[in-house]
Design a protein that fits this description.
- By secondary structure, the chain is of the alpha/beta class.
- It has three domains: 80 residues, Winged helix-like DNA-binding domain superfamily/Winged helix DNA-binding domain (Arc Repressor Mutant, subunit A); 102 residues, D-Maltodextrin-Binding Protein, domain 2, CATH 3.40.190; 97 residues, Periplasmic binding protein-like II (D-Maltodextrin-Binding Protein, domain 2).
- It is 40% helix and 21% strand.
- The protein has nine helices and eleven strands.
- The strands form two sheets. Strands 3, 4, 5, 6, 7, 8, 9, 10 and 11 form a nine-stranded mixed beta sheet that branches.
- The radius of gyration is 23 Å and the shape is elongated.
- The mean pLDDT is 87.
Length: 308
């Protein structure tokens, strides 16, 4: 019978598909990972990976070992949860994958409060403008802008949020009043690079009728900073506006978008009380933070002078 450390190395290589990637997860060098895999294969009398210049791919024997290794991982996690830590306190590492808008403007505050409540937690926020692969354990849980249609996943609606057309006050003052969508002609539109939109829910500018993106980025914070610099107009998350002084919503009565965040977990993680509790704490925190920031935007508009 193999010990858990051997199976942990096997799982890391299976998920990362390279020795270097597995080494980073395990916090050891690639050569050590390679030796551990060779030792495991020798002990089992079976080749677990096909080696190539592209990386490490599971053989049939490796694929058969995978569910057993994942079951062992689940058992170890359950034992740790059952035996370790003070009652009610959560600890250990939690890696959250999220689109960069959520990761930049919501998760820092949410995770700060979560860390204060559970000092033993080691929280990692991975901000990437793409869909995360939970089967390869790129993250313990992920936040998406639409529910995935396939995979062994548990999905729950996390929070609804709103977006509006916005521009910096200086930019708006330099241009004619915007009273309708037709007035947007001639304005530089800021948004996603069209061929880098990884989810149809992110095709915000389609709602404006804009045919071209004058200034594009695959990053939400970059788009917002371009708006703040007076480079043009963009569809902006309401919850991001408190972080961009001077950026104001326009045409709120004509153009208002509502989207949702979804919390996505691997189906096997339902057996983990720890991850279930963390998921619920994360969900509650995100909902409260979206509501707080959107309310702040509305309160600010009620005390500000009318937009041009």
């Amino acid at each position: 019978m193999q010990d858990w450390d051997d199976l942990k190395v096997f799982l890391a290589v299976a998920r990362a598909e390279t020795l270097s990637g597995a080494g980073r997860r395990l916090r050891c060098d690639a050569a050590t990972v390679g030796r551990r895999i060779a030792r495991l294969e020798q002990a089992l009398g079976a080749e677990l990976f096909l080696r190539s210049v592209q990386g490490y791919a599971l053989t049939d024997a490796g694929a058969r070992l995978l569910p057993h290794a994942e079951a062992a991982e689940g058992a170890m996690q359950a034992a740790t949860e059952d035996l370790g830590g003070a009652a009610g306190e959560l600890s250990g590492q939690l890696r959250i994958g999220a689109p960069d808008g959520c990761a930049n403007f919501l998760l820092p505050q949410v995770c700060a409060r979560l860390s204060d409540a559970h000092p033993g937690l080691e929280i990692q926020i991975v901000a990437l403008p793409r869909v995360f692969n939970l089967s390869k354990r790129e993250a313990d849980m992920a936040i998406g802008v639409s529910p995935p249609a396939a995979g062994r996943l548990v999905v729950q609606r996390l929070a609804d949020y709103h977006l509006h057309l916005a521009g910096h006050a200086d930019y708006l003052a330099r241009h004619p009043p915007i009273r309708g969508l037709a007035d947007l002609r001639g304005h530089r539109m800021i948004g996603y690079i069209p061929d880098m939109i990884f989810d149809k829910e992110l095709d915000y500018l389609a709602e404006t009728g804009a045919e071209t993106v004058g200034l594009g980025s695959n990053s939400v914070p970059v788009q917002l900073m371009a708006v703040r610099a007076g480079a043009g107009l963009a569809i902006v998350h309401d919850f991001a506006l408190p972080f961009a002084p001077g950026v104001r919503r326009v045409l709120t009565d004509r153009l208002s978008l509502k989207r949702s965040f979804w919390l996505i977990r691997h189906a096997d993680d339902r057996r983990s009380d720890r991850l279930t509790r963390l998921a619920e704490a994360l969900a509650q925190g995100v909902r409260r933070e979206v509501a707080r920031l959107e309310a702040e935007v509305l309160a600010g508009e009620h005390t500000a002078s009318p937009a041009p």
